[in-house]
């Protein structure tokens, strides 16, 4: 009952005219950015991060939540209409969603995606309301060694899952950790890897990194391929933007199954919603093969419904893991963790005691944001595709200017502009050679936590490394990590064996 009372207080804050405006603005911007080719919620949050420091924390994070969910809606629109997913989490939606669009069922496909995302997000948000405080109480038992184990779990699990190559995932992680240790050591005061450059003594600003890697790197990537990639032709979207009773009954079990698959992955650091969306699609395809008339490959509505619900369910519980544990399980969550830190807040068990108004207003805004997104997408989804008519050279030139203005507004430093340019080149090279971006973001954000926790644990134990395996929580985390790595290795060996047959 305490959770319900706190949630009602959160609604009283979120429903103020100004905060309600930020919900709408965040949902609109997130959807608009997600619809654009190659962009997504993580890039939207990265671009908007420097612009929201004039807002109070509650308003800023309410808008971020709208952007987070809105980006997923926009990605789905792009994937269905253009067969071009804005993010990896919407790849699974292209398989059957685009076939539905090509068959003249684009509005029904968009409605399936919108309702599925709403159902998955709402169920996940309800679970977060009741279980996030429980997670926070549990994490109060975490000491330095537990936080170090949690960080190692996130590092290795993310690096091994989000890329086809474990080596590439680890390379990305090393890049992130390398950037994280730049500057003056907070404990010893020693200068580390700054090469005598005064501007690097304080390390690299997280905003500079996120804008450079996610936004400017994508601009360079698109610019390098603009003459090779033919312009996509938008699929006409006409007809009723809602589902018939038969279509709704067909999709409902898939929405529920997708939600059940996606919810646990919000607290497992596997890089975001990519894994659960593919699992949900695979589960529906396996069930479809047992039917008398298999529909997959012809525009099966269940093949779209399940991944959409799974993706948003993962996003919802990922926000709960971020608030309760301070654990970012995706690149976007890592950026939001950095945003909390910019406001002097540290997500985790103490956040519920130190900033309860912010936490519960943010949780209430999840429900409002999902409702606003449903209203925006059901009747107007067909019009989002018109954003794709903007010529790429104008679109990405505008994004470049926005990147520079955002970074300069944060630090008023020309050095940071040069830094974001260099990091943008790094982001381009990572895309060029298929190196995943999520591990570098996880490394940058969680690197300092891992280092500080390791050193604190060693100091408290007089240098005894056994401290890292002397509690049930750390042992459990390491066992789970070992199991996850073995499952990943087994699945890849099996996939290679099938490919060789």
Written description of the protein model:
InterPro entries: DUF112_TM. Keywords: Membrane, Transmembrane, Transmembrane helix. It comes from Crystallibacter crystallopoietes. Pfam families: TctA. The chain crosses the membrane at residues 20-39, 45-73, 109-135, 147-163, 170-188, 200-220, 321-340, 360-381, 393-411, 417-433, 440-459, 465-490. It is globular and about 65 Å long. Helices cover 73% and strands 1% of the residues. It has a two-stranded antiparallel sheet. With 501 residues, it is mostly helical. A hairpin with a 6-residue loop joins β1 (183-184) and β2. The protein has one domain (2-495). α2 (17-35) packs across α14 (356-384), α6 (144-161) packs parallel to α18 and α10 runs antiparallel to α11 (301-325). The chain has 18 helices and two strands. The relative contact order is 0.18.
Short description:
The protein is globular and about 65 Å long. With 501 residues, it is mostly helical.
Keywords, separated by commas or semicolons:
mainly alpha; 1% strand; 73% helix; 18 helices; 501 residues; single chain; globular; two-stranded antiparallel sheet
Task: Describe the SSE topology.
Layout: H1 2-14, H2 17-35, H3 41-48, H4 57-82, H5 91-139, H6 144-161, H7 166-180, E1 183-184, E2 191-192, H8 206-225, H9 245-265, H10 274-288, H11 301-325, H12 331-342, H13 351-354, H14 356-384, H15 392-411, H16 414-432, H17 438-460, H18 472-500
Antiparallel strand pairs: 1-2
Helix pairs in contact: 1-14, 2-3, 2-4, 2-14, 3-4, 3-8, 3-12, 4-5, 4-11, 4-14, 5-9, 5-11, 5-14, 6-7, 6-17, 6-18, 7-17, 8-15, 8-16, 9-10, 9-11, 10-11, 12-17, 15-16
Domain DUF112: 20-442
Organism: Crystallibacter crystallopoietes
Transmembrane segments: 20-39, 45-73, 109-135, 147-163, 170-188, 200-220, 321-340, 360-381, 393-411, 417-433, 440-459, 465-490
